[in-house]
Amino acid sequence: MPDPMQHLVLFGPPGSGKGTQAALLVEAIGAHHLSTGRLLREAMAAESALGQEVRDHIGAGELVPDQTVNALVRDTLRGLPRSTPAVLFDGYPRSMNQAEALDASLTEILGHGVDLVLMLDIDDGEVIRRLAGRRECADCGAIYNIHTIGAMDPTGCRRCGGELVQRSDDHPEAIRHRLFVYKRQTRPLLDHYAALGLLTRIDGRRPPEVIHEAMLRAISRAPHARERA
Ligand code: AMP
Fold it and tell me: Does 86 contact ligand 1 (Cβ within 6 A)?
């Protein structure tokens, strides 16, 4: 008997707003946010063996090897309380190998695969503009953009007062490379998920709250959610 947890994937190029939408969904539906990028940055900050292994890949805008992220996700899924209503994958899977590993891990550990893939659609120009202006709170991870009026308030993060910093991979060279890597290795997954009937595309240029509403509608219509209701 499959467990009732919803398995949602947030998909889209770097800078498409996955982190912002994840935070809104955590609040709205109590989802567990599983961001591989964040877990890897935490490992780097802690200077763990994993952090040291991935530092150069991340700084260059390259993907960390599949085997490493697949193991990280598997371990995280094993530790997830079964009462979690939904798990939200952000920045994973990023390759066909990862999509296959995710399906296998979910089926083995939680009884069923991915329920829904939410794709945030934005063009390259917007990706570059957003990433170059992105700042993150060093303490709570809240995301801001210097193009948004008032975001760079010198008092720091509006939520916790922490310092706003630029990510080490948000410099022009790494941004261009991440976009290239996305197109070559990650975007082909869209065809895979579309063929499985799991893909919903959402216009990522609209205001965050409008996108959020569209996501909630898609989640409430997801076949698994209906079957399990
Ligand atoms: P993100 O925060 O999702 O933009 O990820 C930041 C960086 O972490 C990426 O550019 C990769 O170097 C690495 N990374 C995050 N998730 C993955 C993944 N699923 N596979 C490989 N590398 C990843």
Answer: no
Pick the closest to residue 154 from 145, 144, 164 (CA basis).
164
pLDDT of amino acid 172: 86
| 229 CA to centre of own chain | 26
Q: Which amino acid residue places its CA nearest to atom 2 of ligand 1?
A: 37
Burial 198-208 (b: 16+ CB within 10 A, else e): bbbbbebeeee
User: Where would I find the beta strands (DSSP E) of 44-131?
Assistant: 86-90, 116-121
Q: Is 92 in the pocket of ligand 1 (CB under 6 A)?
A: yes
Whether ligand 1 lies within 6 angstroms of the CB of 61 is answered as yes
Per-residue pLDDT, averaged over 64-71, amounts to: 98
State the pLDDT at residue 34: 97
Which residues are known to be catalytic? 18, 94, 134, 167, 178
d(CA 181, CA 176): 9
Q: Is the CB of 98 under 6 A from ligand 1?
A: yes
Give mean pLDDT, residues 5-22: 94
pLDDT grade for 4, boundaries at 50, 70 and 90: confident
Q: Under DSSP, is residue 222 helix (H, G, I), strand (E, B) or coil?
A: coil
Q: What is the pLDDT of residues 77-103, one digit of tens each?
A: 999 998 999 999 999 999 999 999 999
Distance of CA 113 from the midpoint of ligand 1 (Å): 22
Distances (CA, A) of 112 to 62, 102, 218: 30, 11, 19
Q: How far is CA 217 from the centre of its chain?
A: 19
